[in-house]
Structure formats: C-alpha cells, structure tokens
C-alpha cells in the first residue's frame, strides 16, 4: 500500500501592506517608459541609460514628454548645484529615496564627471525592485562600469546592502524603519563627515504622511544634509478639475497620494520642512521652475520647441502648477536665502454675487472651438459653437443652441471651412462673421478665411491670411466692419511678429508698427476701447496683454495700442502702460476667451502669471481713463461650482455671460471635459456703469438643438451658393420590361429608370398597417430612428435622431399618423454581422413580396433586401456603393437623384457617403448651380432602379411610406473585403487610395504652405489626367 503524499502547503497570503507596496512599485514601470521617451527624443546626443530598463520604446504624447522632461530637469538642476557647491575635500553622498529604475548616478557621471569626484550615489527602494535593478546593472556593461572592478554583491536576498562599490550602492530598505536605515548607511559611510543630498521624486508621497514626515525630520540630522523633493500639490484645492482628475487617477490605481491633502500648497510644504529642522528652503512649482534661469535658459526653452510639435500649453501649465520642486538645507545660515513668494491679491468680486448656474446638455464634447451668435428672420437667436477638438479628434461640425424656450429649427449651409481648432471668429456686424486661420495638427497651420453671411446662413470664402496663423487673437474695431489680428503662431515653433487688418473690400493689410512694440506673442488678450473719438477719423484704440512669447514664458506687460487706418497702410502704435500691480497681473494670462460687452470686457479662463490662475477666473475690465479690473474667482472650497475655462467658448447674451465647452487633458491621468452650459449674471459688475448699458437683462434659456456637419470643397463655395440660373429638373423615365434581357440593357446604361407593371406579389394590395401588425404581432420589437428635434429632415452626419425600441403595433400607429419615425430593417439573427433579408427577418410577410422573373439578375446577385417604413420624415442625401432597386409598396414618395459627376457640388466630405445638404430646400432657393438633378415620383407598385454611386434623397408625400430595397452586386470585383452589413463600404480601390493620399500629403507636411499647395495641386491634375486617359 503506497503512502499518501503530504498535502501541498498553500502559498502565504499576501498582506494588505505588501499588496499596496507592490502597487506603488508598479508606478515605476509607467514612469520609466515616459522617461525613456524623453531620453530618446530630447537627449539624442547623450548616452542613454533608461533604455536598459525599458523592453520596448514607446513614444509618449508631446504633453507627457515635456512634463517628464521638466521633472527630470528640475531634479538635475538641484543635484548639479549640490555637486558644485559642496566644500572641497568633503565626501558627497546622493541618496535617491524610492529610486525605482531611475538612472541618476549614470547621468550625473556622464554629464558632470568632474563634479562627481568623491561622490557616492545610493539607490534605495523596496528589496524586490532593487534586486531586479541589480540584475540589470550587473548584466549591462554600460551600467556595470560605474561599479569598478570589484563590486560587493550580497549573497543573501535578505541583506539590506544588495550591491556596493566606492561610487554606487543599492539598498533594499523599508523607509519607515529609520533606525535600521541609519545603521545600514553608517555601515559604509561616515555620515557625520559627509555632505548628503536626499532626493525624493514622487516617492515618499505614497507613504503614510506621518512616516514621510518622520523621514524628512530624520534626514535633517544626517551629516551636512540637503533635501530635494519633487511631488504633487493641489494649489486651488482638491475640487479643481485637474486636481480632482489627478487624485482620482491615483486612487483608481490604489496608490493614493497621501501628503498632498495635509500639505496642499507651496507655503504648507515650506512650513512642513521648517518645522522638521530645515533652515534654508527654496521651492518652486514647476511652472516657476520653467521660468527660472536656475533650471533652464530662454535659449533652452526655444530649443525644446524644435524637438516635436507641441501646442498643449494650457495643459502643460496646469500640470506644472500641480507639481513642485523643493531644495532644503539643514545647515543654519545668517540669511535664510529662501526664495520670496509674492501673493497676488487683486480686487475681487465675491463669487456668490455672480449667480453662476449650470444646466446639462446633450451636446457632444468640444473644446478649442469658437462661438458666434446669429438670428433667424423672426428674430430668434441661436448660438453656434464651431469646430474644435472632440473626444475623438478635431470635428468638422458645429453645435447649434437655441437661446429661447421655443424656436424653429435653424438650417445652415452644409458647405464651408474645413475642421480646425485654435481659430478665431470675429463679428463684423452687417458684414458678417469672419473666421480666420486655425490649425489641424500643430504642423498643419491654416491661412484660409471665411465670412458667415447672416442673411443666407452660409459661408463665403474670402482672401487668405498673408501667413498661416493659429493661436492669434482677432478683434473688431469698434462699430466698424474691420478686424485687427494680433500675433499667433505660424508653425510649431514660430511666432508671428506681424499685425494684420482685415478690410471687407481690400482684404488683408499688414500694419506698420511703431512705439514700444511687444515681443512676438501668441494666445494673447486683446480688446478695443469704447470709441470716444468720431469714428470717421479712422483712429481706434485698445489693450493688448498676456500671451506667450517666443521664449516660452507668459508676457507680463500690458500695452495700449492705437491704429490709424486713414493712410494706404494702417499704422499701429504701442505704448507700455505704467506698473499696474495686482490688477495688471490679472491680465497677464494665456489662452483666455475675451468677450466685449457694452460697458466692460470679460476675460474668461486661461492660465496666468499668477499661480492661482488655473482656468477658473473671470476678469472684468473697464477703461475710463485708468484701467480698472475686477477679478472673480472661486474660493478653494467652491471650485467644483465653477467651470474649467480652458478651450471654452464665451458669449455675451443680454447681459448674461454664457460659457460652453472646454476641458483639458490632465497630463497622463485622464481628460476632463466641461459638459454643461454655464450662465453668469453680470449685473453686479461695475454697477456705476449700469446707465451706459443698452441691453435689458433677460433670462437666457440655452438648449442644444443639433450638430450639423460641414463639408469642405473650395470649388463648391463659389458654385453652390452663387448660381442664379434656374436648374433644369430631369424627369426619370418610366419603362416596362417585356423580357429578362431588358434589365441587362438598363444595367449597362447605368442611368436611373422607374420600372412599371412588375408583379411584386400581394404586398401592394395586402400590406396595410393593420395587416402588417396582424402578421408580425403587435408586441414584436424593432429598433427605429426617431427625430430628436422639431424637423422632418434626418441628418446622418449630425445624428439629429436617436435609436429607440418600439413595438410593431405602436410604431405602425405612429407612422400612419405621419410622426417622424423611420425603420430600416436589420438582420434579425445577426444585426451586426449579416445583411438584412426580408425572407429571413420577416417570414410572415415574405410570401407577399417577391422579385419577378424580369429581375432574375438581381435575384442571382442579391446582397440584401431591406424593409423600409417611415412617417413624414426626409431621408438624408447619400449614395450606395451597390446598385439597387427600390420597390414602393404603400404610400408615395418624391426622390431626387444626382449623377456621380456632381460629387463636388453636394457637400460630401472626403470619405463620407452621406451629406448634410438639404436638397429640397436648396432646390427651392435655386442654390444648386452646376448640378444635374433627376426627379422620381413613386407610387405603389413602382420600382426605381438606382445605379451605384448615384446620390439620392427622399421625401414622402403621404403620411406613411412602405418600401422594400433590393441591393445587388453588379461589378465582377472590387468590393471591400471587410465586413459590410449595409452593403455601403466604399470600393477597395478607393479605401486604399485614401490611405495613399494621406501618405503623400504627409510627405509634403514640412514644407511652406504655398510650396505644399503647389505640388499637391500638380499631383491632383496628374491624377485627373490619368482619368481622362
């Protein structure tokens, strides 16, 4: 009888403390990958050491790269200063607390070999992590060289000293056990005779706060001690959107930040160290470090801009304001030497007096767009939030909001500017609204300009800017049709030194400058002053402030400008204002939204020179002789009630300040979006000016209506809207088929026809609403389109409908009454994988609907059959890649078709098979010059042949329409190989061609605009010539 084997002992359960320690060690992995990205991109000419700790290079986003570069530079600057300033002959020790896979010892020896003489570096972290690091160091010659010929390698994993040499030690220690830590250090270092620098880069903040405080106090007693700490702060409180996102991120990782709550600000951190034995304390948030020559020079800031395209300035500043670097010394000095901190304390309007309210909206997320306000002929107002950045990239649409409780739908032209962000919209009164510049990516800067005409609600192309611009500011000269443009960026690292005047008749004029001309700036604040002179003198004046200079710092000067437009070339004169103290600091801001009211100007959001200016301030400015500024900002306990005005859009509506959109990427910790609509009552601002206000205060009700998409075709701008010749509407011919071969003849001609007299089965007679409900069952559920707004025009691009589940019975009742519902049937069995098939999806109806023998070709090549039932709702303009026949079963319908050659006139965006053009309205207004419309009036029993790629739209002429669509393949090859449930994926050659076009365009991306356009236009001509041949 065999002996039973002993039961296996289960592995010991991991303690909660150990589990947390493991999670903290995990933060090292993400950090080190980011540092490797910085090393490779920003230090191409240095020896690379992070590479040995990262298995595979991952290029981080520019914002993350720049943030980590600054973190590394801040630590490097303090360490270098320590190495240079330690007394000659005294041993120097640098102890990296929670070092992770950091490569500080190797970088210092590479960069500062002389200063590293007589220096020992000590890496300290969890034993498990240090053992992994030891293995990499010993196995990598470029790292092992620092150890010298005879390093000491521990034989036991339980030893605290895991690796040792004269220049470098690795310790596996628990920093909460300070006595053991001291004993370990003193076993190989004469600490009392050493200059010791402790470095903690985002490490001790993961410890419980008491243990971290004990460590800081203990460190002050070690030799001639100094301390370099870099970690997070929350200067405007835990409810600030960046702080909230940051804290939520670390909490989600189960590595919550501990000390940030007890020491949320720089002043708290200073007191923290003062109370624990540190006598000399210098500290900077990282934006202050960015601006300080101790850390980097203006030349270095400009060189960084050349490394990679970068335009996340607001988000970079938000990040930098939420991290700090501290350098403390325990040795007493006659002068503390601590860097002084000046607090800004401007005049404030109590935030409670402003009456901020927030309402929810279903509008899509959007930031870095631009707003405008228009009205319809009845006087109803609408706000339009144009373009910008959405959750999936730049968006070619606009959000449309109504500004009253009830209003009719606003229809906009679907043709206009291309998608962009960081552009400007300037209201020029009766001349229209000027859109200027903007960018796609930071390397694709735009120069095109457009005027939005209020009467036609359409975009007209005007002269391009003399140079491509984004992040410029544009203002209307008071009561004129002129716009003045200040600064902006012309490329990833180039800032425009020019100023341009837009004249509706003369186009763009470059201004001659004089006086105390500002440095080149972008993202500045500019506004015009109330025109006290006779406007006929042609002289206007205003204020320019803030913005970021070519050297990458916020401009702190304020200028009064005066422009004289009476000469051939407008002359622009600048004078620097006198020192304005705290009020001037409020205007030293970047990326704010400026809104001019009747008696004062509002400056919303942005990030500023003042440390507390983090996107939630609103400054109100008036100028009557002297500049008068009132600042309204949230208290640190009320930040959650205020919007984050980064990339938001602001408008004045009847004395109410309205804010839509905005948000920020919060470094690597997530993205915060403003999804509400904020209104701010400004009646309490500068009450002494109330008598000057003409606009009566009224309640503003903002409601999201739609997000119409714009298609960009430069040719269409001149042709779609300028046509005055009456179009010739072609009537689609009616034919009868006498033999099967007749349909083959129709196919070969590829022209639409209405086929009469076909036997479709009993459906034409039998499919009444009552009969269909009886056959399918009243409670059978289907998914249908339901218009969300008061319109009968469905638009696939703006998705002005929603998908709702209805029973057959309820749907048929509503559709027969003409309600705005539409059913496009899907596969019952696999709706996301298989095409629709009436026989399989609606077997109870199938026996009544058939393709006759005359259409046997379709039967043999059938792709799908689709049941379509609709109330009084128009189908959007689109094309089908597969040919099809449309059998009208019940009700009647008007369809308008256009041949494929009309594509450039119908507002189809590249790659899109649907357009937002309202064909029926455009035909009534004779706005489709250059097109060749064909019309079909379908009655029950009619079958319309729709050739592939013919554009078509439909409108029912009865309350309800019932039809069946039969799609079939009429090409031998060329269809897309991927999944195609709707049979509407573009042909494979087109999909491949678009990829090639993008690749070709990217190859010209680095060239100046005019050269890029020259070559791309030539290539386009060559492609058209190939078509002709």
Outline the fold blueprint:
Layout: H1 16-42, H2 62-85, E1 91-97, H3 104-111, E2 119-125, H4 127-138, H5 141-144, E3 152-153, E4 161-164, E5 168-172, H6 178-186, E6 194-201, H7 209-219, E7 224-232, H8 241-252, H9 259-262, H10 266-274, E8 280-285, H11 286-291, H12 298-305, H13 313-321, E9 323-329, E10 356-360, E11 370-375, E12 381-386, E13 389-390, E14 393-394, E15 398-402, E16 424-427, E17 433-436, E18 449-453, E19 458-462, E20 473-476, E21 483-486, E22 499-503, E23 507-510, E24 512-515, E25 521-528, E26 539-549, E27 558-564, E28 571-576, H14 581-586, E29 589-590, E30 593-596, E31 601-604, E32 607-608, E33 618-624, E34 626-632, E35 649-653, E36 656-660, E37 663-665, E38 671-673, E39 676-681, E40 703-706, H15 714-719, E41 730-731, E42 734-736, H16 741-749, E43 753-756, H17 763-766, H18 769-776, E44 781-787, E45 801-807, H19 808-816, E46 821-824, H20 838-841, H21 843-846, H22 856-860, E47 862-870, E48 875-878, E49 883-890, E50 893-898, E51 914-915, H23 919-924, E52 934-938, E53 943-946, E54 951-956, E55 961-968, H24 988-1003, H25 1009-1028
Helix pairs in contact: 1-2, 18-19
What is the strand arrangement across the widest sheet?
Answer: 3-4-5-2-1-6-7-9-8
Q: Which parts are unreliable, with pLDDT below 50 for 5 consecutive residues or more? A: 1-13, 333-337, 342-352, 715-724
Query: What is the number of helical segments per DSSP (H or I, 4+ residues)?
Result: 25
Number of strands: 55
**Percent of residues in helices:** 10-25%
Residue-averaged pLDDT: 88
The general outline is globular
């Amino acid at each position: 009888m065999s002996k039973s084997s002993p039961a296996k002992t289960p592995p010991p359960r991991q303690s909660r403390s150990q589990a947390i320690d493991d999670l903290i060690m995990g933060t090292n992995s993400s950090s080190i990958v980011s540092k490797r990205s910085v090393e490779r991109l920003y230090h191409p000419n240095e020896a690379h050491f992070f590479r040995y700790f990262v298995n595979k290079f991952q290029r981080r986003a520019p914002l993350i790269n720049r943030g980590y570069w600054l973190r590394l530079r801040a630590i490097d600057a303090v360490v270098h200063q320590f190495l240079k300033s330690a007394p000659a002959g005294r041993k120097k020790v640098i102890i990296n607390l929670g070092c992770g896979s950091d490569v500080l010892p190797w970088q210092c020896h590479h960069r500062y070999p002389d200063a590293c003489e007589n220096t020992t570096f000590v890496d300290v972290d969890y034993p498990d992590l240090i053992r992994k690091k030891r293995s990499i160091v010993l196995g990598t010659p470029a790292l092992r060289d620092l150890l010298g010929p005879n390093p000491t390698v521990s034989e036991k994993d339980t030893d605290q000293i895991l690796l040792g040499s004269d220049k470098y030690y690795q310790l596996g220690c628990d920093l909460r056990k300070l006595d053991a830590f001291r004993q370990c250090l003193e076993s190989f270092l004469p600490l009392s005779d050493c200059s010791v620098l402790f470095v903690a880069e985002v490490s001790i903040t993961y410890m419980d706060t008491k243990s971290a405080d004990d460590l800081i106090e203990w460190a002050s007693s070690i030799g001639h001690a100094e301390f370099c700490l870099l970690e997070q702060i929350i200067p405007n409180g835990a409810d600030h959107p960046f702080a909230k996102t940051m804290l939520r991120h670390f909490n989600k990782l189960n590595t919550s930040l501990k000390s940030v709550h007890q020491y949320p600000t720089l002043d708290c951190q200073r007191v923290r160290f003062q109370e624990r034995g540190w006598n000399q304390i210098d500290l900077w948030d990282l934006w202050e470090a960015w601006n300080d020559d101790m850390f980097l020079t203006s030349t270095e800031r400009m060189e960084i801009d050349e490394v990679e395209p970068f335009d996340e300035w607001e988000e970079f500043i938000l990040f930098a304001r939420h991290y700090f670097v501290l350098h403390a010394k325990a040795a007493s000095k006659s002068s503390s030497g601590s860097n002084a901190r000046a607090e800004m304390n401007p005049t404030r309007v109590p935030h409670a007096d402003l009456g901020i309210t927030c309402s929810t909206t279903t509008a899509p997320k959007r930031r870095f767009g631009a707003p405008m306000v228009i009205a319809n002929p009845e006087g109803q107002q609408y706000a339009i939030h144009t373009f910008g950045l959405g959750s999936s990239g730049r968006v070619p649409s606009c959000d449309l909001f109504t500004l009253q409780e009830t209003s009719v739908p606003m229809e906009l032209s679907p043709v206009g500017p291309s998608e962009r962000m960081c552009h400007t919209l300037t209201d020029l009164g009766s001349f229209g609204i000027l859109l200027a510049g903007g960018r796609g990516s930071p390397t694709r800067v735009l120069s095109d300009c457009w005027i939005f005409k209020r009467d036609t609600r359409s975009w007209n192309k005007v002269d391009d800017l003399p140079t491509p611009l984004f992040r410029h500011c544009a203002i209307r000269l008071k009561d004129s049709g002129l716009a003045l443009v200040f600064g902006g960026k012309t490329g990833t690292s180039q800032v425009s030194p020019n100023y341009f005047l837009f004249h509706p008749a003369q186009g763009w004029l470059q201004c001659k400058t004089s006086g105390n001309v500002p440095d080149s700036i972008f993202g500045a604040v500019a506004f015009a002053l109330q025109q006290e002179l006779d406007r006929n003198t042609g002289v206007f004046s205003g204020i320019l402030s803030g913005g970021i200079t070519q050297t990458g710092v916020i401009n702190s000067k304020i200028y009064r400008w005066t422009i004289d437009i009476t000469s051939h070339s407008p002359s622009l004169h600048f004078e620097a204002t006198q020192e304005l103290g705290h009020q001037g600091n409020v205007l030293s801001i970047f990326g704010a939204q400026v809104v001019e009211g009747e008696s004062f100007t509002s400056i919303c959001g942005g990030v500023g020179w003042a440390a507390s200016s983090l996107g939630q301030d609103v400054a109100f400015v008036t100028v009557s002789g002297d500049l008068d500024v009132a600042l309204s900002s949230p208290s640190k306990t009320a930040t959650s009630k205020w919007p984050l005005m980064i990339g938001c859009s602001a408008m004045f509506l009847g004395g109410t300040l309205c804010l839509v959109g905005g948000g920020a990427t919060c470094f690597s910790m997530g993205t915060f979006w403003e999804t509400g609509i904020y209104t701010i009552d400004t009646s309490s601002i500068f009450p002494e000016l109330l008598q000057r206000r003409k606009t009566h205060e009224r309640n503003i009700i903002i409601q999201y209506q739609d997000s119409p998409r714009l298609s960009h075709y430069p040719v269409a701008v001149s042709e779609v809207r300028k046509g005055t010749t009456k179009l010739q509407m072609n009537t689609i011919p009616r034919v009868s088929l006498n033999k099967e071969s007749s349909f083959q003849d129709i196919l070969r001609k590829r022209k639409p026809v209405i086929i009469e007299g076909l036997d479709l089965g009993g459906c034409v007679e039998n499919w009444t609403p009552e009969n269909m409900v009886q056959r399918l069952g009243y409670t059978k559920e289907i998914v249908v389109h339901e218009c969300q707004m008061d319109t009968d025009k469905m638009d696939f691009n703006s998705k002005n409908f929603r998908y709702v589940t209805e029973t057959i019975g309820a749907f048929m009742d509503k559709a027969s009454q003409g309600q705005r519902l539409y059913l496009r049937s899907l596969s019952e069995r696999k709706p996301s994988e298989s095409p629709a098939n009436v026989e399989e999806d609606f077997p109870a109806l199938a026996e009544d609907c058939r393709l006759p023998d005359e259409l046997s070709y379709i039967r043999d090549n059938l792709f799908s059959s689709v049941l379509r039932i609709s109330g009084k709702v128009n189908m959007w303009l689109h094309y089908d890649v597969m040919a099809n026949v449309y059998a009208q079963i019940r009700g009647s319908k008007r369809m308008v078709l256009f041949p494929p050659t009309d594509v450039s006139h119908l507002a189809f965006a590249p790659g899109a098979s649907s357009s937002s053009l309202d064909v029926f309205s455009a035909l009534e207004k004779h706005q489709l010059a250059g097109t060749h419309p064909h019309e079909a009036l379908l009655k029950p029993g009619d079958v319309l042949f729709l050739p592939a790629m013919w554009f078509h739209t439909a409108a029912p002429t009865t309350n309800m329409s019932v039809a069946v669509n039969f799609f079939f393949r009429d090409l031998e090859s060329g269809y897309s190989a991927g999944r195609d449930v709707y049979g509407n994926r573009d042909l494979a050659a087109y999909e491949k061609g678009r990829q090639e076009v993008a690749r070709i365009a990217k190859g010209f991306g680095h060239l100046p605009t005019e050269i890029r356009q020259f070559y791309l236009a030539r290539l386009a001509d060559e492609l058209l010539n190939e078509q002709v041949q």
